[in-house]
Amino acid sequence: MADMMWAGRFSKQVDETVNAFNSSISFDGRMYRHDIQGSIAHATMLGDCGIITKQDSLEIIGGLEEILKDIDEGRLELDPNAEDIHMFVEAELTKRLGDVGKRLHTSRSRNDQVAVDLRLYLRDEINEIKNLVKELISAIIKMAKEHTETIMPGYTHLQRAQPITFAHHLMAYVWMLLRDLERLSDTRERMNVCPLGSGALAGTTYRTNRKQTSDLLGFKEPMPNSLDGVSDRDYCIELCCDLSLLMTHLSRFSEEIIMWCSWEFKFVELDDAFATGSSIMPQKKNPDVTELIRGKTGRINGDLITLLTMMKGIPLAYNKDMQEDKEAIFDAVDNVKLCVRTFTPMLSTMRVLKENMRNAAARGFINATDCADYLVKKGMPFRDAYKITGTLVALCIEKNLTLETLPVEEYRKMTELFAEDVYDAISLETCVRERKSEGGPSPDEVTRQIALAEERLEIYNRV
């Protein structure tokens, strides 16, 4: 098997099915830029430390830069028969430079090579995902600013509970997504350590300079332990966990949009560009984007389980099982980017049906708590006020009335504390306006929340 870099030990060619089974270039080929980046840093260090000559180092760096340029510009295609991206690049370099190219792998193993490639790749992907999430947060905040006084019912157990505003509801997702940004940033910081120089598992006898390669690649420091350097995939699992939570938030939001689009709610209407129809029912307008996001959440959760299960029984150090890490984390990254990119313009073009929201809030006795609070403010213990209000709600249901339309005489039969001012106290506008407690739905408080969220977002825009 002359084409295999490791073929010297073997007397037989590897079976073709094993070659196909073993190969990873079909998915790790996407890391070609990061593989070359890591190799350039390694070659620089080899030359500076005198492990290879400075001339050989410069030739290798030049050859790697030419390979990168040729791939970027389409003059060089990845060989699907190569075992992996590392072997492809090294073989191409050797083809171009001869014996000089063979010196690149001195004091290095594919174990630490793939470890550094994957960290470099995911570090860039985290930056891209963070930018997409920031765009989504900005879109939600923009919509929230337009709806600080748009009244809607708030729900518990999917039952109308208390009046809030659409802006207040939207801002709940802003805070979820800001936490997602924080988690992604934390993961990026924790993973930003360099495994290059760990070798196969036990370092090397060459006098290398791991700090130099770490600095050249933008890491904060080399990993302290060579075994951990090649066997750690915590960062893949942690990132996938971050992405699962992000998708959980998008899925919850999607579920609400799906309900709000239905005729039973009709709180919003999606733009035609972000909905689909039926092959048989001409009246249908389906929220397929949100349904797909809801479905893809399960897929990304599956990627997380794949990573956790893959790692749970592996002894130190590297094992071939770990080749499975890339397909799982790449799938999660790709699908999260696809979902956020699609969700943001869908949300931005969504039409909010304010009157329908207001009408729904007017039904369902969601001002009952405010009716009880009215009595409490006049001196009645809350539990007594709660019981009286519950009795009034039952009376309204019996007479097909609401608390707003129930005559004041009926109120006063329950207690003389009721007066005409009860109607102002239980109006939806008053109910929302007076909920001024920190984090509440009053227009002033939501405006303060928006300003605070924008401050947090600006901090992430600067880093």
Distinctive features:
463 residues; mainly alpha; Fumarase C, Chain A, domain 2; Ribonucleotide Reductase Protein R1, domain 1; two-stranded antiparallel ribbon
The average pLDDT value, as a whole number, equals 94
* Derived structural class: mainly alpha
Question: What is the radius of gyration computed over CA atoms, rounded to a whole number of angstroms?
Answer: 31 Å
Q: Helical element count?
A: 20
Structure description:
The chain has 463 residues and is mainly alpha-helical. It has helices at 16-22, 25-28, 32-48, 54-72, 85-97, 99-102, 110-145, 166-191, 210-216, 226-231, 234-261, 288-311, 324-348, 354-362, 368-376, 382-399, 408-414, 422-425, 428-433, 443-462, and strands at 151-156, 159-165, 268-269, 351-352. The protein folds into three domains: 7-106, Fumarase/aspartase (N-terminal domain) (Fumarase C, Chain B, domain 1), CATH 1.10.275; 111-147 and 163-359, Fumarase C, Chain A, domain 2 (Up-down Bundle); 363-462, Orthogonal Bundle (Ribonucleotide Reductase Protein R1, domain 1), CATH 1.10.40.30. It has 20 helices and four strands. A hairpin with a 2-residue loop joins β1 (151-156) and β2. α3 crosses α9 and α7 (110-145) runs antiparallel to α20. The radius of gyration is 31 Å and the shape is elongated.
